From TrEMBL:
Organism whose genome encodes this protein: Wuchereria bancrofti
Name the record gives this protein: Uncharacterized protein
Tree of life domain: Eukaryota
């Protein structure tokens, strides 16, 4: 019984991890699109650049 519960917990954690990774990728895409839409002279562009810089480089 304990082994089956452990397998279930591992599977649930794996699913949660995949969902979180998908959410991070989606947020990165949205942040990049905002950065693309803002012109270089726009005052909010530096904030968008800061947000994009917070994402891991492997995205």
């Amino acid at each position: 019984f304990r082994l089956n519960k452990t397998y279930f917990d591992i599977d649930k954690l794996s699913t949660d991890k995949n969902d979180a990774e998908d959410a991070v990728r989606e947020a990165y895409k949205e942040a990049r699109s905002v950065l693309t839409l803002l012109c270089n002279e726009h005052t909010l562009r530096k904030y968008a650049q800061t947000i994009v810089a917070k994402f891991p480089p492997e995205l």
